[in-house]
Design brief:
15% of the residues lie in helices and 27% in strands. The protein has a 9-stranded mixed sheet. The chain folds into 2 domains: 42 residues, no CATH class; 117 residues, no CATH class. By secondary structure, it is of the alpha/beta class.
Length: 169
């Protein structure tokens, strides 16, 4: 008996166009998208660049666990995020630094320990040391062993989700 091909059109209600696109191309066919978040809109927010394993990533800075830092950075203050432990580090150079120095991340999306929350670690070049461009946490550990660079825990948690891995900056 000959088979008839039947084409079915599916409409998926989703929170964002990205979810709709995923739902329509999901590995096992169209699915429902889950809880609704409401219609998507765009807002202008500054982005920043930081290094991870030698390449640049793009990130946002939205919240910090220090009132002083929140005021200086013009971001939200959140005491609660300061209680989160076991976070990957974000390294920030204080004082002298190499030209082009950016934040350095200890992880990025796709890594098992990635989190948009970061434990802030402050790096300082010792007197007489010539700063070099730091682009990875592995490099930071190696330079620290030479005695030219020190690090200290700032006891601050930053909410800085990485929104783009690699690419042009």
């Amino acid at each position: 008996m000959p088979r008839k091909l039947v084409f079915v059109s599916v409409v998926v209600a989703c929170a964002t166009p990205a979810i709709a696109a995923y739902a329509m191309t999901a590995p096992y066919g169209p699915t429902t998208a889950g809880p609704m978040m409401g219609p998507a809109s765009k807002t202008a927010q500054p982005t920043f660049h930081g290094y991870y394993d030698g390449h640049k990533d793009t990130y946002l800075s939205t919240d910090v666990s220090s009132k002083t830092a929140a005021s200086m950075m013009h971001v939200n203050y959140s005491a609660r995020i300061g209680t989160v432990k076991g976070l990957p580090e974000i390294y920030l150079v204080e004082g002298r630094g190499a030209p082009g120095q950016l934040a350095v991340f200890g992880s990025e999306p796709g890594e098992k320990d990635y989190s948009p929350l970061w434990a802030e670690t402050i790096l300082t070049w010792k007197s007489g040391a010539t700063p070099v461009l730091l682009t990875s946490d592995t490099q930071i550990d190696q330079v620290e062993k030479t005695g030219k660079l020190t690090e200290r825990d700032a006891h601050v948690v930053l909410n800085c989700p990485i929104v783009k891995v690699g690419g042009k900056s």
